[in-house]
Design a protein that fits this description.
Elements (H helix, E strand, L loop, with lengths): L6 E4 L3 E6 L13 H4 L3 E6 L16 H14 L5 E6 L1 H12 L4 E7 L8 H17 L1 H4 L3 H5 L3 H12 L3 H12 L5 H5 L5 E6 L7 H10 L4 E5 L6 H4 L1 H11 L2
Parallel strand pairs: 2-3, 2-4, 4-5, 5-6, 6-7
Antiparallel strand pairs: 1-3
């Protein structure tokens, strides 16, 4: 059963639905609202287990999280949206595109990519789950904001969100990411505009992934933003919003 997601809506016009990453919430998109909402309708949901959305029973899966968002689109009577996903939100966005390709006007991955975890990455996620269960959220993720971004104000902002995220939601999301399927074919066969926006200094997107994207995703715009890491919508809001606007022209 889909979870009823908390959301906020800003502006009017072509709908742009932005999905946050792990373990954050919809407020990370605040810096681009004043730019996009001048002529677009910006829809910002909290994924299950995050923000103000319900913490459902685990395990979670990316397909279930995608169905939550599709159900929200149905409730809001949005036949099609420009879909934007940051980090884990990109995995959810790709799954929405896989399940309901006719519902997309475009797809942008921000600090994200379409590939499944390697066995080593899956094991690292399982280890993280153990740390959360044994040590709690704050101890496990005390250094996480520094990995997301080098800017102190953004680190402080994200840390407040992380500290308030329920451990069950965090564990469920880690499980979902570890078990997700490869979805690069979504970008390969998309009939709508697609883009991947990465930060040059993002520690979560290794060089080999960027190289693979260059080779395999021929029809997708790949933008590498200098002096930026994983929180691109906060670090480079003008650049991110500009790319999204261009995709909808």
């Amino acid at each position: 059963m889909p979870v009823k997601l908390h959301y906020e809506i800003f502006g009017m016009g072509t709908p742009v639905l932005c999905i946050h990453g792990f373990p954050l919430d919809h407020t990370i998109w605040q810096p681009i609202i004043p730019i996009l909402a001048t002529n677009k309708q910006v829809i910002l949901p909290d994924l299950r287990g995050h923000g103000c959305s319900p913490v459902s029973a685990t395990p979670y899966s990316i397909p279930e999280m995608a169905r939550d968002v599709i159900a929200l689109m149905d409730d809001l009577q949005l036949s099609q949206v420009m879909l934007v996903g940051q980090s884990m939100g990109g995995y959810v966005a790709l799954e929405i595109a896989h399940q309901a390709p006719d519902r997309l006007l475009g797809l942008a991955l921000v600090a994200s990519h379409p590939y499944a975890d390697s066995p080593q990455q899956r094991q690292a996620r399982m280890d993280m789950i153990e740390h959360v269960q044994e040590d709690g959220v704050e101890k496990t993720f005390s250094d996480f904001p520094k990995k997301l971004c080098s800017e102190a104000s953004i680190q402080e902002f994200t840390w407040k969100i992380i500290r308030g995220t329920d451990a069950k939601g965090i564990v469920g999301s880690i499980q979902a990411m570890a078990e997700r399927q490869d979805r690069w074919d979504v970008l390969l066969f998309a009939s709508y505009p697609t883009a991947i926006i990465l930060g040059e200094q993002d520690p979560f997107i290794p060089v080999e992934v960027r190289h693979r994207l260059h080779i395999e995703c021929h029809n997708t715009r790949l933008a590498i933003l200098p002096d930026a890491a994983h929180m691109l919508m906060m670090e480079k809001p003008l650049e991110v919003a500009g790319i999204l606007q261009e995709m909808m022209e």
